[in-house]
Amino acid sequence: MKRAKTSKAWMKEHVNDFFVKQAKKEGYRSRAAYKLLEITERDRILKPGLTVVDLGSAPGSWSQVASHKIGHSGKVIAVDILEMAPLPGVEFIQSDFREEYAVIELKKYLRDHQPDLVISDMSPNMSGIIISDQAKSMYLAELALAFSMEQLNYGGNFLVKVFQGRDFDQFLFDMRAGFKNVMIRKPKASRDRSNELYLLGLGKK
Asked: Which of 13, 23, 64, 128 has the largest CB neighbor count within 10 A?
């Protein structure tokens, strides 16, 4: 009964959510689009002609934003374990980024080009057990960071979702070791009760 009430409350909040309504109105696949839009408006990370890798892309709202901002001269390669409906100008790989074969496949799609920007909104299936969820989330962030440090162009940028908690400080330290500047961002579209943050690494060393 408690779970049903909680689900009902979440659904009511979701339906009445400003960003959910705005996403439907403007044709974005989810409210998450506004997180990336706010960050790129502030930090100018999406520009025409860039090669962008979108990790944890489904349902595709970040790929939508990226594809629109970089234009026909750019390239977006999206990866997710879940299915994602096709998007114009976006190459999609359905694969589990935790597995080595997903990275190998991604490198094939890059065709020896190094990405200018890696964006990661990856999240694990949440169990409600905070310590476990935090560890799984940080593991995905670490995989995204490792890929970025290996593949990004010199001077390239990296945007990743993280959750505050154990290992956050160490991850922030690791990012600062790899990038000239690291910013902490909490977009307006992130729900107040969520402990999610976005770390933006500018200028790969």
From this structure: 64
